[in-house]
Amino acid sequence: MPLTDVSRTWRRRRVLTTAAAAGAAAAAGALVPATPAAANAGAGAGLVPADPLLHLLRRATFGPTAEAIAEIRRLGAAGWLDRQLAPGQIDDPEVDAYLGRFPLLHLDIAGLRRAAAAGELKVGSWAAMQQLGHAALVRAAWSRRQLFEVMVDFWSNHLNVACPFGDAWDSRTDYDRTVIRAHALGRFADQLKASARHPAMLAYLDNRASTKTRPNENYGRELLELHTVGLVHTEADVQHAARLLTGLTVDKTGAYRYEPVWHATGAVTILGFSHPNATAAGGEAAVDALLDYLAAHPATARRIAHKLCVRFVADDPPAGLVDRLAQVYLAGGTAIVPVLRALFTSAEFAAALGAKVRTPLEDAVATIRVLGLRPEAVTTDNPTGTAASRALYWTLQTLGQAPLRWGPPDGYPDVAAAWASPGGYLGRWNLHLNLAAGWYPKQLVRPASLLRHLVGAALPATHGGLVDAVARALVGRPLSAPHTAALTAFFGKQPTSPLRATDSAATGGFPYLVALVLDSPYFQVR
Amino acid sequence: MSVTTTDPCTCPERRPQADGPARPGPGGLSRRGVLARGLAAGAAGALTGLAGAGLSTRLAFAAASYTGDVLVVLSLRGGFDGLSAVVPHGDPAYYAARPVLAVPKPALLGGDAMFGLHPALAPVLPLWRAGQLAAVHAVGQPNPSRSHFQAMEEMERAAAGTSIRTGWLDRMLGLQGASSPLSAVAVGGANSPRSLAGPTPDLSLRSVDSFSLAGESAKRSMAAALRTLYADAPPVLAGPAAAVHGALSGVGAVRTTPYAPANGAVYPETELGAALRDVARLIKSGVGLRCATVDFGDWDMHEGAGAAVAGQPMFERLRELALALAAFATDLGPAGLDRVTLVTLSEFGRRVQENASRGTDHGHGNAMLLLGGGVNGGRVYGRWPGLAPSALVAGDLAATSDYRAVLGEILQRRCGMGSLGSIFPGVSPTGFGVAAARA
User: In chain A, which end has fewer C-beta atoms inside a 10 angstrom radius, N or C?
Assistant: First the structure.
């Protein structure tokens, strides 16, 4: 592989720093207790319980459930993390059964085209992509492979191909399966190379039409700027990358093909990578060399480490942690699991209590999970058994974050400021009441009694006690005294007012109490 | 470029309805808990890397003084056929290219030697004749794409060839120092368009009447409880929560005042009519609106656009547009219209040659419509490149004016903007005189 001196230099340095990078905490696999004095303690640290197991659940899953809390208490943090990082060994029968209701989900490109040829769907139909979007919600809400699904969401955004995207009608589901999910806990270099030769990406970023006479820079630019090194490249780097990428295209059957006659030969130099690119026949191998080089570039390491920290630690994560994780990434040959282990066992992670605000997707899914809402049943009113997932998907669309739907190549934003619109907050508040009251979507299976599910069989003696019990169930801690008083005042009561089984707060008014706790800052941070 | 002219079009604006949100049935949603009709997140357009930025402005609610026109951007999504709306009847190649779809010369309205309006635009003919409605022809983007998605994205980013990821309206509002979400409102849709993406606050709402807090009642106030819950929250949460209350109060004041259009204006009972009615309502309410966006889709007529007679899809769509625009202008009245400029944009025009399905495929050069008291209307602006086969670009009307240059002229003459460099990098405004300098 033609590497320059510069790259050899950083490769050497990488080896030297490996030991320090991995860190003792990662090796021990134990959670570091939170230290309140830590510099990066989140602004919301006072809103969440300090229990490190709950902190891990809030970050590494789409939201705690009673079952997940019981499981992590049984396994401990290290055992739970081990289990989540080996998702193939976790049975997921409920979600598997549900996904059987999406018949197009598992078809590959040829399969979807065959189905179209057989008249089962139209050529260009969005049906498979819609099923994929709905399935993403189902998986987020109910899969037991929670960390895996969180990472699928992460990579879907990092290597975004909008879904739906018209020209990926036959390939978007295959992209999800063979690029995103296949490598979600694998090596980034493998995932990057899989994305580069996938028809969905080649269509989305126009490389399929890029030829030596008319090179299209779209994919070359985003490959550098978004997928790998970030904004450290020059325009010349983009042009060279675009030239090298010519020939990666899609054939008439919709499959990936390398087309040598479209490939622009000639030496390229891209961010320290150089290749003679002397023959058209060797173009594909030269692209792979570039992608391996970019995946293992220090700037890529920092960029992916930073994005993972933004997802799991804080919007403005500690630089020291980012640097250490970047070294773990490089030392592991772009493997992601060691990076995640180092992240979740770092002191910075432990200290970042309440430092993240839920996005609309995280808020909606966490609400479904904590309320104990279960997948819909197939009924005469809902013969496909998918009405609720469809409704949830469109609800998320009105909140601006339907799964996989972000149009531009940079993926959904992952910081609180990006989701701070008033319409968005009003929307999530309204969603909480709709879900708590069972108004919409109606098809989700609810606990026989939401009150009993959250509070238990014994009714608290006072209105304040009821607010406490609901808060402990939903956010793992009681609310502050003024906040508790505000919620009892909603029912015209004091915290000390006795609670009878017939009181509004325990009957028709109960969903409003649940919604208000979900609306509150306590639930909005994770 | 994603050119898939042989595949059936899979444009977003034509497809999602089949899979749209379930209409709440009777008793489905609570009377107040109608989420599906609810609100929207401006967040869709928001960007990464904004931590900290813009939060302080979200807290502020007082509108800085703005003395320019309210700019209404009407997006004709799907690819508007400017050649059918503003017909180049003086160009013989037009009739040669469109044997079925061409509008016969005698049917055209308000014409001159070269152009005439489609007969379905009759409702706006009085505005055209009064000089309040103009067109600019042969307008397009510098890097044309035939993908709806890319073309819309690029049109609303409006910064081709740069790494800028904000939208042009957001950049304009930022320069104006707009700080209230009610400065910029996306009406009628769930989400703010990409043109509003970025740090400047904006509000998207399906309708003024639906912008409400589920479960709220005077007896039991969710809003009051929420104010207490957020009173001591960290700024990252308290900011948006306060903005919700501000927006609820601002929109609520508009909502609770019954609205009757003025001057006998009758809006068509269409989504566009309802949206423009809400825009007029917000303008007249004095909430500090500077800019509104409205979408009007379904222009992607690959098949069966039809001849220029009532009942045909193109005729009906243009008529729906004209009826809503006419009602909007009537409702605002001459004095109101003097402080408003409405512009239409569409991601691309249509192929000059009609196809075998009585429709047209994706093209490039297009027409923009401009409505307002400050518009020097009644005529068609722009340099006409001609429709002769040799003048076409890949079968399309060539674009002789960058749409951003036309917008730039409006922004400078009507919206108080000076240098356009940070809104439309590298673009010089047109000097058509399509709008009068604001008094």
Answer: N
What is the complex's ipTM, to 2 decimals?
0.90
Contact B220 A491 (CB under 8 A): yes
Q: CB contact, 8 Å: A421 with chain B?
A: yes
| Cα→Cα distances A348→A328, A345, A430, Å | 15, 9, 34
Task: Tell me how close the Cα of A119 comes to any Cα of chain B, in angstroms.
Answer: 15
**Which residues in chain B are closer than 8 Å to A222, comparing Cβ atoms?**
none
Q: Pick the closest to residue B257 from B283, B277, B285 (CA basis).
A: B285
* Cβ atoms < 10 Å from Cβ of A212: 16
What is the least distance, in Å, from the CA of B282 to any CA of chain A? 16
Mean residue pLDDT across chain B: 85
Min distance A90 CA to chain B CA atoms (Å): 32
pLDDT over threshold 50, residue B7: no
Minimal Cα–Cα distance from A92 to chain B, Å?
A: 27
Contact A430 B165 (CB under 8 A): no
Residue A6 to residues A13, A233, A270, A274, A304, Cα–Cα distance (Å): 11, 15, 12, 11, 21
CA A97 to chain centre: 22
Question: From CA B178, how far away is CA B38, in angstroms rounded?
Answer: 25
Residues A199 and A336 in one domain: yes
Q: Give me the helices (H) in B147-194, please.
A: 148-157, 168-176
For the CA atoms of B315, B318, B319, B325, what is the dihedral angle to 10 degrees?
A: -170
In this complex, the residue of B39, B46, B225 whose CB is nearest that of residue A419 is B46
CB-CB neighbours of B419 under 10 Å: 9
Domain termination residue (choose one: A315, A335, A355): A355
Is residue A348 domain-shared with residue A467, that is, in the same domain? Answer: no
Query: Structural domain of residue A244, as residue ranges?
Result: 1-22+187-355
**Which pLDDT tens digit goes with each residue over B289-333?**
999 999 998 898 888 899 999 999 999 999 999 999 999 999 999
Range of the domain at B130: 31-414
How far away is chain B from the Cα of A8, in angstroms, using its nearest Cα?
30
Name every residue whose Cβ is closer than 8 Å to that of residue A412 and which is 6 or more positions away in sequence: A157, A359, A361, A401, A406
Contacts of B182 in chain A (CB under 8 A): none
Calculate the average pLDDT of chain A: 91
Is some CB atom of chain B closer than 8 A to the CB atom of A418? yes
Does residue A30 surpass a pLDDT of 50? no
- Using 50, 70 and 90 to split pLDDT, how confident is the model at B32? very low
**Closest chain A CA to residue B162:** A235
Other Cβ atoms closer than 10 A to B63:
18
Count of the separate structural domains present in chain B? 1
How many domains, in total, are found in chain A? 2
The predicted pLDDT at position A250 comes to 98
- Please check whether residue A164 touches B, CB under 8 A: yes
CB atoms near residue A422 (< 10 Å): 31
Cβ-contact B287, B66 below 8 angstroms: no
Is A395 a member of any domain?
no
Local structure of B3: helix, strand or coil: coil
Say how many CA atoms lie within 13 Å of A275 toward its Cβ.
Answer: 28
Q: Is residue A274 part of a domain?
A: yes
- Alpha carbon distance, N-terminus to C-terminus of chain A: 44
B194 contacts on A by Cβ (under 8 Å): 407-408
Mutate to test the interface with B, among A129, A233, A359, A430 (most CBs of B within 10 A): A430
From chain B, the residues in CB contact with A125 under 8 A are 10
CB–CB of B240 and A399 under 8 A? no
Residues A336 and A191 in one domain: yes
State how far the Cα of B375 lies from the Cα of B341, in Å rounded to an integer: 7
Q: Is residue A14 part of a domain?
A: yes
**pTM reported for the whole predicted model:** 0.80
CB B360 within 8 Å of CB B78:
no
